[in-house]
Amino acid sequence: MSRARAYTASGWSVLPPSGDWAQASDRAAVDWSGRFAWFAGVFLLVAFSQAWVAVLVGYEPGKEEFGIVRNGFLVAYAVGLAWLALDARAALGALLRSPLLLFLIGLAFVTAAWSLDPGATVRRSVALAFTTLAGVSLAARFRWRQLATILAATFGALALASLVMGALTPGMGRMSEIFPGAWRGLWLEKNAFGGMMATALLACAAAAVLNPRRRGLWSAASVLCFALVLLSTSKTSLLAAVLGAGCMMFVWVCRRGPVTAVLAVWAGVALVAGGAALLAWNPDLLFDALGKDASLTGRTEIWEAARRQIEQRPWTGFGYGVLWDQEGAWDPLAWIVKDSGFKAGHAHNGWLETWLGFGLVGLALWTLLFAETWLRTLVGLAREPGVYLALPLLLVFSLISLTEVSVLDYHDVQWTIFCAVAVKLAVGDRFTPSAPPPPES
To answer: What distance in Å separates the CA atoms of residue 431 and residue 141, rounded to the nearest whole number?
Structure first.
C-alpha cells in the first residue's frame, strides 16, 4: 500500500502509516521556522555590521544619517519583530536569565527623564533595544555550534565581499587620503574593517573547532580573514586577532584534563601579571607596538575632558546617546571640545560613554554584567564547548571597549555579539518546546 507524502521546505517527506496530516503540518512549521531563524540571524548581523552603508551612500563620513540608512534599519527592526514573534517564549526565557541586561535597556529609556534631548534618547533607546534583542534571539534560538556557524558564515561572506571590493575596485575598497593603500573593504575606514575581520577570524576558527565536518572550509575562511586583517594595517585589530587565537589555544589546553587546566590557568595569570608589570614599567612598548603615541591619538585628552563633565552629573549622566549631538555654547560637548582641543564623535571608551549616558547606576549595572559574563566564561572553560567561541570574542570586545564605543551602542554588531555570548552563557544549549533548534549545519 502506498504511503502519503507531504512537501516541506526540506523536500518530500513520508507521513506515518496513519496519514496523520497534523503531524506533517507540525513538521513543516518547524522546518519553516528554523529556516526563517537562519535568514533573520544573518540579516540582522549584516544590518548591524553596517557593511552595507558605504556601498549604498558612498565612502564619506557623515552619511550614516541619510534616509536610506534609517529606512534600512527600520527593515531590520521589522525582521527582528517577526523573529521575536515566532520565538517569543524562548527569547523571553533567555532574557529573564540575564536580568542585568534587561535592567540596562530599561534604564536607557528612563534616562529620557533627565536627558539633554529626551526625544533623541527615546529613539536611540528603541534602536538599542532592537540591537540587543537580535543578540538575545541568536542565543535563544541557536546552539553553540550553530551560533558559531551563523557568525562564521555571515562574516565570512562579508570578508569575501571585502576581498572582491579591495581587489577589483581599489578606489572604494582601499583608503586613498588618510592611510593610503590600507584596505577598508565594505566599511568606511580601515580600523572598522580590521576589527570586523578579527571578529570574523575568531568566529571561523571557532566554527572549525565546533563543526568538524566543515573544518576545512572554516579553516580556509580563517586564513582569508587573517590576511584581510593584515591588509587593513590596523595593529589594534592584529593584536586582537592574535590574542583571540591565543585564547582558543588556552581553551584547548584547559580541556585536556584537570591537571593541564590548573597549569594553564596559573600560566595565564602569570602571563597577564607579567605583561601588566612590564607595561607599567615601560608603557612605550605597547604604544610602539600599536604605532600610537602616549595620548593614543588624542584619546587621553578626550577622556580627561569627559571626566570633568561627568563630575557635573555623576549619578544620572546626561541621557542615553545624546551628549555628542548637543552643540550649544553651554552644553557639555562645548566644554569637552574646549578642554581637549578638538571635537570628537564619542568618548572613545565604552566605560566612559556608559557613565556619561547612564550615570553611576548604569555604569555599576554594566560592570556587574561584564563581570558576570567573564565569570561564566571562565567557569565553563573545562566543560562548555561554546567557550571556544565565547572567550576570544569576549576578549576582543573587552579590548575594543577600551578605545572605542561598543558597550550599549545601538546599531553596533559588536554589541549584538556580546549580548548573544552573554545570554548564551546564561542559558546554555537549552530550548523550550515551542522553539526547537533549526536543522543542523
So the answer is: 7
